[in-house]
Amino acid sequence: MRILDRYILRSILITFAGTMFTFAFLFILVDLFSNLQDFIAKNVGLDVIAQYYLSFLPSIIVQTSTMACLISVLFTYSSLNAHNEIIAIRASGMNFWQITRPALVFALFVSALVFLVNEKFVPQSSMVNQEIRDTQIKVVPSQKGKGLPPIHNLTFYGMKNRLFFIDTFDPNTNELTGITIIGHDHNQNLVEKIVALKGKWTGIAWKFFNCQTTAYNSTLPNDPPSSIHMSMEKLMDIKETPKDFLRQRMDITSMNLRQLHGYIKRFAGSGALKTLNNLRVDLHEKITFPLRNFIIVLIGLPFALMSVGKRKAMTFTSIAIALVIGFLYYVSDAVGLALAKGEALLPWEGAWLTPILFTLVALFIIIRNF
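Predicted structure:
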């Protein structure tokens, strides 16, 4: 590695570490104050609090690494520019790619690190964090006078080898909307399909409204349904209670790529098209998410090298540029994902729209100015 590369990389690493520490500290501080009443009400010990916040670290790394990477790179190159070091480097005959090589290699490394952490550590740490919160920290909502928020796109495996797809579950009223239940035999052959507009827990059993129950012959999977029954109201033979729905819910953040891909493949024929479309969008988003570290740095570097000004002004300028670029990327990415989940775009189009667009813009700026 060249002396210049080591010099630039050292500055990036120091700034990156400081920025990550600052983000983590602020996150923990804000969360600590927001949960302080729960900690006091439950008399939570320091060891539990420490374990709770340690389980947050993988998620903090994944969520804040993009802005930390961008700020550290832009701060370093803006500082070099403010001291006229960039002019000296370019006078030696080095082009844009040679000057920015340490930053681009660092951004690729961070992207790979985020992918690894997101796959190996975030799913497990999220489950540990949720378990600690539910069992040792969280105060019962009724004690605080607040209700639980509705759960959307609830999916889980129930008893009798049934797969549940629920659009919305309101744990305060124990009501379901948009119900699809797929039943299989022990050989995973389709034996029943239940579709209902709405469901309500009576205290003893689930009552479904506008319900259609379709039975299939498991030995003849390609044959038409053996029977179809329509009911305006029907008490269902479903053993799961509202507490089971809360406990068995499937959180996408608790899956890695392999698990989510297998989950989608296994239930591709369930008929719950909206839920499956959302899962496919989430799958592509998990692939593109780590790439944002490299792409945002790529589009930010030309601005850092083109900026000219005093040292203090350059520092604030680099941070401002980082915030604007990061904000635009996040907004564009959110819009693309929303369009895909609304079925205006294909799942892969919604997830890859922003990375491709920002990469093309970055290359255009680089080619035009360097």
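Summary: The chain has 14 helices and six strands.
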